[in-house]
Amino acid sequence: MARTALVTIACLAGLLSCLLLLNSLNSRSIRLTLRPCAKSDEDFIQLTEERLARFQRGLRFRTVSYDIGRQDTQQLAEMVSFIRSSFPRVHSAKSSVKLTVINQYSLLYKVQGSDSSLLPALLMSHLDVVPTDGQNWTKPHFDAVVEDGYIYARGTIDDKVGVFGILEAMEYLLAKDWKPKRTFYIAFGHDEEIHGFQGAARIAEHLRTVEKVQKLEFVSDEGMVVLDGFVPGLSAPAIIIGVSEKGYVNLRLSYNSTPGHSSMPPAESVIGVLARAVARLEASQQPSQLGNGPEKAILELLSTYLKLPFPANIAARVVLNNLWLFKPLVSYRNPPTNALIRTTTAVTMFNAGIKHNVLASSAQAVVNHRIHPSQTIQQVVDHDRQVIADPRIQIEILDGIEASPVADCEESSYAFQVVAGTAQQVFTDGRVLPGIFVAKTDTNHYLQFTRNVYRFTPNHIHMRDANRYHGVDERIGVTVFEKAINFYYHLLRNADLPREQSGQLLEVLAAVAVVVAEQRPAQLLAVQVAAAVRVEDAEAGLQLCSDGLPAAADGGAERGELGQRQAPVGWL
Fold first, then answer.
1. What is the pTM of this model?
2. How far apart are CA 514 and CA 29, in angstroms?
3. Residue 312, pLDDT score
4. What is the set of domains in the chain, with CATH numbers?
């Protein structure tokens, strides 16, 4: 009997091991085939001294947003005037670009496309920056000095790189007689750092009521970046495309009682009661949402990129591709993982007491939650109430915004393939990953038009420089700004490919999260490809081989961005 049991256990263990290994082999990867952007390209936009000087001049405007209703509007007005005079093709009366100034300082550009059947796309950025007050910079805050290959100034990466990158790309395209098929909107709000109520919200209202926009193909905004040192074992830079954005809620916890003299304290003090409630919240964090959001795909993709020594490489692939079993292990609390897989809890303020010998009659604490896309504000509050388990503690919602919906990021998503493919095209040595943006932008005002909002800033940094956002010595590499211009240029061109002609091609040729071909039965791959695409696209200049893999073709009147002159497929 015991022997039979041992044999059964051994068989089950063997089956489990086989299942774990099979799941780790059938891991996800990314392949992208857009022509790599190179300095030798005829259409590569060089960062000339003139373009660099325009960017530096724009950075010198102190367009600071201090708080709602507190902005340097004079600097905003001067920057808007500078922009209008510095990009003549964009702002010419004869230009095909229509500019509408919204609420005095926000800018909305419209480039009318020739094909009304195509949904418009929106590229956005913002003109304002956060203050530098109280920060000990080693460089002047707004001088935009260039030193050791970097431009230093507030706003370099958040987010005047987007403003001037887009404008330079548009100016270049208009010089080439750009006439897109798709209609493009370009939106520069002036108060993103204080929630965008006067900028992005008004622009969205104008789009809906005046432009009669009902739906957008996608929105491209600032967000995540190309990151070195993202995780140990990932030797290539991580191109992280934000496909969702955490929400937030600020809660005020309070408890009131009778004051008294400290010489006769009660069994429980007001401060003690509230402190225990806060301690319970920190000890019993919001539940892990691993598997309920995009982080599952992030971790599975990451497992294919990690270069670790044996046997750590095998262990990483097994763990990250079998989250149904190893979820508790991966959910272990450390700050980076914690922010990815759950709603975070941060006690940011605690106030109580008026004098050292007087018992406090009231105590208040503020708790900031950054809400995972799989949860709502009400669910977060309900969890807190259950964990505190003390009816004496009052919980009040001060303010909050729900998390954004998760944008499409699978292989069938035309919009994601365009944004991710363009990022890979410009940052050629990187590896694309979807991500959750843990900060807040003003994109929530545009969610009425699409849930496909992609948050990516074309900036390449090391993990150790992440604290420069809103921090000391904010900077961007000179060559990175050049890449940013080319990113927006290619994004405008790639997004102009009609879905009917190129969308299905992108599903296969730029397929994100497809099973690695060498590790998948050939007939299964062929079935997937056959089901995904039945297209002959002369304009794109591509064809599909009989075995389901893409190959270059010399035909086609216009190669466009998908045209290949070299071997088109490179597995990442």
1. 0.81
2. 6
3. 74
4. 49-231+408-502 (3.40.630.10), 244-261+268-401 (3.30.70.360)
Whether the CB-CB separation of 415 and 218 falls below 8 Å is answered with yes
Q: Which candidate, 492, 409, 502, 503, places its Cα nearest to that of 458?
A: 492
Q: Which residues contact 439 (CB under 8 A, 6 or more apart)?
A: 245, 246
Amino acid (1-letter code) at residue 288: S
**Count of C-beta atoms within a 10 Å radius of residue 30:** 24
What residues pair up with 374 in beta bridges, in sequence order?
A: none
Q: Of 519, 407, 410, 483, whose CA–CA distance to 41 is shortest? A: 483
Distances (CA, A) of 123 to 163, 430, 488, 520: 10, 23, 9, 37
| Non-local CB neighbours of 206 within 8 Å, separated by 6+ positions | 100, 102, 108
pLDDT reading at 547 higher than 60: no
List alpha helices for 39-155, DSSP H: 49-59, 73-86, 88-91
222 — phi, psi (to 5°)?
A: -65, 165
Distances (CA, A) of 416 to 33, 132, 280, 503: 14, 35, 41, 11
H helix intervals, 71-119: 73-86, 88-91
Indicate if the alpha-carbon torsion angle 165, 168, 170, 176 is positive or negative: negative
Distances 55 to 71, 86, 477 between C-alpha atoms, Å:
21, 10, 12
CA neighbor of 345 nearest in space, from 376, 366, 374:
366
d(CA 95, CA 115): 19
Per the CB < 8 A criterion, the answer to whether 451 and 405 are in contact is yes
- Render pLDDT for 216-260 as a digit per residue (tens, 0 to 9): 999 999 999 999 988 778 889 999 999 999 999 999 999 999 888
Average pLDDT, the chain: 83
Q: Of 481, 489, 458, 487, nearest to 49 (Cα)? A: 481
CA–chain centroid gap for 409, Å, is 12
Cα distance from N-terminal residue to C-terminal residue, the chain: 51
Q: Rounded to whole angstroms, what are the CA distances from 31 to 297, 370, 394, 516?
A: 15, 33, 52, 9
251 and 346 Cβ atoms separated by less than 8 Å: no
Each residue of 186-201: b (16+ CB within 10 Å) or e?
A: bbbbbbbbbbbebbbb
Q: 65: which strand partners? A: 71
Over range 127-139, report the average pLDDT: 96
Of the listed ranges 83-97, 139-153, 498-512, 524-538, the least confidently predicted one is 524-538
Question: Mind telling me the catalytic residues?
Answer: 128, 192
